[in-house]
Structure formats: C-alpha cells, structure tokens
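User: For documentation purposes, I need each entry recorded in a consistent format: the amino acid sequence on its own, followed directly by the corresponding structure tokens. There are two entries in this batch. Please keep commentary to a minimum and don't merge the entries.

Assistant: Recorded as requested. Entry 1:
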Amino acid sequence: MSSKTWTLTVLCLVAFVTTFGAHIVAVNLPVYARQVGLGTLGIGLLISIYDFAEVFAKPLTGYIADRRGKVATMVVGLAIFSLASLLYLIVDPRLLLAIRLLQGLGAAAFSVVSLALVAESFSKERGRALGMYNAVKGAGYVLSPLIGGAIVVLHDFSAIFVACAAIGSAALLLALTLRDPRTDARPISSLTGAETTLDYMPNPADDDDDFDLRQMITAFGNRRMLPWYSVIIINMFFVGILFGFLAVYANKLGYDQMRVGLIVSACSLAYVLVQPFSGALADRFGPARIILAGLLLSGSGVMLLPFTSGMALGLVAILAGLGVGTVWTNCDTMVSTLADPETLASSMGAAGSFKEIGDMLGPLTIGAVAQIAGLRLGFILCGVLGLAAALAIAGIQRRHNVSIQA
C-alpha cells in the first residue's frame, strides 16, 4: 500500500468515527430515556448538544491545528472522544449530556482537521480523495443504527460507548502513523488571523459543518439568498428529526432496537444514495425545481410518519430520506449559482453554517412540541414547515422567474 493510499484510508476511518459517534447514540436514546425517565425534550437536547459542541469548537481547533500541527490536533481530538466514551461507563448515567458534550468537542477537532488533511495531502487528486472521504463518512449514517441496535439487543445501552471508544481508539492508533504533509504554497491570512497556506484551506463547499460568524452576518444582509438559506435550515431540520426521532417513534410502536436500526438505516441509505441522481436531475431541470420536489417529498413524509407502522413506516421513512437527500445536494448548487462571484466563498460557508443550525434546531423543536402535545403533533408541525417552505419557493419562482436550467 502506498503512503498516500494509507493516508487516505486512515483519514476515511476518522471521518467514519465522526458520523458513527454522533448517530449510534442518537438512534438508541429512547432506550436510555426509558432507563432514566427522560422526556422527548431531553432526547432532543442530547442529540443537539453534540452538534452544538462541534459548531463552536471547530474554529478554535482549526486555529490550534495551524499552530501545533494538524495530525497532533486530530490525535488529541480522537483521544478526547475515546476517553469521554469510556467515561460514561463509570459516571452516573444522568451525566450523559456532559459525555455527549465532550464527545462533540473531540469530534470537532478530528472531523475538521481530517478534512483539511485530505485537501492538503491530495492537491492533485482532491476531488477523488474527497469523494472517497465523504462516501466513508456517509457510511457512518447507514451502519451506526444497525450496529447500535444489535449492540443494545445483545448487551445494553452502555455497551454503545464501548464501541465508540473502540473505533475511536483504533483511528487514534492509526493516526499516529501519519505526518503533517509539507507544502510550498504561499501563506495567506485566515479570518482568525492564523498564518496558514493555500493547501491548508479546504473549499467551504467541501465541509457542511464550518461555522463563521462573519459569514453569517454577511449572509443576513443578502435578501436574495435568505429564502434559500431558510430552505437549508428546514432541510437539516428534517435530517435531525429523521435521524433522531424516527427512532423515538419506532420505539413507541414497540419495535426492538434491531428493527429500529433497520428502519433508520434504510432512511439513511436513501438519503446518501439519492444525492448523485438528484444532482443529475438538477442539471437537466434546474436545481430550484428539484429542491421544490424534495421539500414536498420530505415534508409529506414527515407528516405521514406518525400514521404508519410496519412496511408502510419503512417506505415512508425511505421517501422522506430521498427528499432530504435531494434538497441537501442541490441547495449548494442553488446557492453557488445565485451568489455574487466575489462573495461565493462567503455564501457557501454561510450555507454550511445554516445547515449546522438546522441540524440542532430539528431535534430540539420536535422534542419540545412532543413533550407538550405529543409526538404525532410534533411530526405534523415539522412537516407543515417543510410544505410551507416549498410553497414559498414556488412563489419566489413565479414572482422573480427564478428557474435555473442546466
């Protein structure tokens, strides 16, 4: 195996740890909730705290990585994640919120740095390398519900954290074999004032998790873009709901965790696989129309979920996954097409920030509504939001003739 192939293999495993650690716990939180007497709002908070930690820790870890070394920062992040996972085995289970916060802080370091290392190490084959990296990262969404469900059925909820620590530690040991790649690119000044290099700076469009306050402020001043940023928030709102509260609903139906994992994995697989096809459709019919269709599909799916069970539940979950995957990939296309050329990077970075915000708000909102008025009403209200956004997009197209063709 060549050194570059080995580097990419290790960084792909690190990417897998990011999504695996987030979703193996989220999907099985209903089991934890029954053990400690937690309500739906608590479940929403436990899902969101991981993303919250990543949003605000990433700028700091990126700054540290530029000064202390990317590989060293990634290793420290993996160590924090792994130790935090093991810590759950010895602390009061009611301290899970603190454990998830620590896991998210560790994930912030190794997720953003691993992406930068891919971009830097493969300057001539960046597209292929990032495609492989994101494919393995996406596999974490699909496999974690299945693996987590099997672990809970065969052992218990706490065993999930043993799995998190094991895969985190494996990635850590392999990461110790890597070196920071050298570059001769000229230095540039980042927003934080850090001295870095062109090859160290990934394209903002390549990372949906970057958060930058200045980009957010700039975005709010662009009225033309705000409707599309709103769509991004609502789509990620659905992602947070589907990857968290679909499991809550399935548990409410009395399904065991293995069956819950199968349903959530089917939804996740649809979400991952549809993206290349929806991108091709957008090239033919225009991203605005395909985004509108995706919102109609996901909004309707979320509204229908609490009225289904058995095979019908799996089918509706897949349809909802197809919807959010369709909107996910084409929102970037829409934003990049409408943005002014001189502010393209800022607009794409802001889009990534809005995605992260939506991913946090979804579980919190449905958790709060379900706590007060029941889970069925929570799904219905969230679905209505998506359909309202779809109608707004249709109105924008009609009023401003916003229909982008290939």
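Entry 2:
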Amino acid sequence: MAAVSPARRAAYETLLRVFEQDAYADRAFRTAARDLDDRERAFAQRLAYGSVQRVRTLDHAIDQLGKRPTRKLDPPVRAALRLGAYQLGYTDTAPHAAANESVELVRRARLERAVPFTNAVMRRLGAGMRDLLAALPEGALKESYPDWIHETFIRDLGPEGALGLERAMNEPLETVVRGDAVGEPTDVPGAYRVDRVDEQLVAAGRIWPQSRGSLVAGLALGAREGERILDLCAAPGGKTGQLAGDVTAVEIDAGRASELRANLATMRHPATVVEADGTDLPPELTGFDRILLDAPCSGLGVLAQRPDLRWRARPLPDLQLALLRAAAERVRPGGTIVYSVCTVNADENEAVVDASGLEVDPALAQEWPQFVHPRRPEFLLTLPHVHGTSGFFVSRLRA
C-alpha cells in the first residue's frame, strides 16, 4: 500500500468521529493526534478543524462536481473526499497529493470498490474546486455556516458585520494567556499574546490559556479580598482562577466539576467547588457580595476555537434567564452580578438582561471603552473581526 502521512490520517480519523459518531472535534483530534510531533500535529489540526468548519461548503462542492450526493456515500469515502476537497480549496497542497492520499484512505478502509469513484471525484475537484468556490455568492454557503446563524449575525451586525465575523471565525484567532509576562502585553491587564501555549508553564500554574474576551468578563466583576464571591457556572475554571475573595464555584455536571477541581488545583486557587444546579442552589449559598454568571449559551462567539460547534449550537435564553434570576436571589441587596455569555446573539445577550429587570451599571462601559457594545453602549461586546478575540457579551448589574 502507498503511504498516508500521519497528519492526514489523524485529520481523517477526526472527521470520521465528528460526523459519524457525533464526537467533539477537540477530543477526537486529541486522540487521533496523540503520537504526532509538533509539526505534524499543527498540520493535522489545520486539516481536521478546517474540514469540520468548512464541511457545508465542501459537501456542496463534492455534490456538484462528484455527481453523487455526499449523504449517500460510505462514511470512509465521505471523510476522505471532505479532507481532499478541503486541501484543494483552502491549502496549497498539490492536487495529485490530495487525490492520492484520499484514494489510499479509502483503500485502507477496505473499500476497494470505491477507489475508482474516489479517484474520479478527486480529479474533478482538482480541476474545478477553486472556480466553484470563487463563483459562490457571499453568505452562509460560501463561509460554511448554518442559515440560522448567518441570519442571526445579519440581524445583529448587518450584512458587512456578519460577513466579517464569519470570515474571522473561519481562521485561527490570537493566542492569549493570563499570568506571567511571557509574551506581548495586550489592552487587557494580565493578558499576554503568545505564539503558542507553553504547556509546562500551564502545568506549573504560571499561566492559563484564556482569551481577552473571557478575561474581560472575569475582570468586570471586580472581586476583592474579604468578599464572598459566587461563580455560578464555573467549569472549566478559567474565570474562577481570576477571582479574588472567598470564592464558591458551582458546576452541575460531575465530570466537569472534577475537571474544575483539577484546573483550580493547577492554578493553585483555593475556591470551594460545589456540585449543584445553578437554578436550584443549596439554601446556604446566599448573601454573596458578587456573583459571576458566565452562562451556558450557543457559543456563537467561540466558533473559531470550536470547529464543530456551529453544527450543534442552539440558543438557551430560557435557561440563561432562569440562572440570572437565581443569581439575583442569592446576591446581597446592592450586590453585583456580572452576566456574560460567549455568544454574539441579541436573544441570549441584551434580551436576557432586559427580561431580568435588573439595574444595569453603566460604569462598565467607561472602564472598557474599546469593547463597548455597538448598539447598547451600557454593555460590552467583544467581536472576533473587530478585536481579534473571542466574542463575549458582558453586562454588570445591581441587585
């Protein structure tokens, strides 16, 4: 058999697991790439994550040029063609290399009968892929997003803003860490831009990977020593690790709570972890000075970091409002609540705050003028295509 590069093999296995077994891309890739060196791993990640992100566009190209619906293909053939199409459309891989390795992946899956078909489709893609992509009208199909996400972005940011956001989240964003001064300082205190995350420094508790948008959400709380602080939806713990004071961190899922404890131990943060439903807290968890509610959401601001999320995302405004009302019941009178979400969706952002009836603290925007919400200046909204960081909505409220 002809050779298949380790990087392409890892990307192919990731595609199979994500789309045929409903696996999360980051976990599937971690397993598939465990034996790769740094260079191979970087290339494999680009292929895997890019193919997952661009799968709507890739399938359209395969359907048009392959003349057989992608959904009817055997899973190994589908994954091999998607991987080959991505290389042809979005990298400088030589067409013959993409074709040969896609064919070999199908052969290794013991689908010899599908080899001629795979080869023929890859040849057609090699000849026509770039022209097909260039001819696509701007929008959800060309940028590979579900229609509902594209329509949400247009509604909230306008056509140009939507397109800029979609393009930005199809590319890697900056890499930022919180902690020791190990890279380039940014406009967020304690945040440093780096080429890559030094895992040894992470393990030593000296830095923590965290976007500037996420850091702002934690900093907005203004937690101080001597205060009682509640982090209501805490896992995996990046923001918890920022917080001063006597911190209680709540997480409903046992597995994520275990991860939260491990991460806090790595960061040497003394927060107390409580496994509980944020909407039904134990009675003793009350009277907090400040509460951070970084609520579960559709994640439409972090699609660059989570390539498969666009295909499984859903808005959660009812849960978010229930959590915000629960926070309002557990903060002391006059206390502070920060409601944040890593999404760019007004239904989960300002609409939830408006429905809560809580008083908005307008001073937040004065503290972070570079991140002021474009339509609601009492809030913050970090945007990948404007600020180069993940998309976060941040509000500070008074009980």
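Summary note for entry 2:
Residues 321 and 355 are 7 Å apart (CA to CA).
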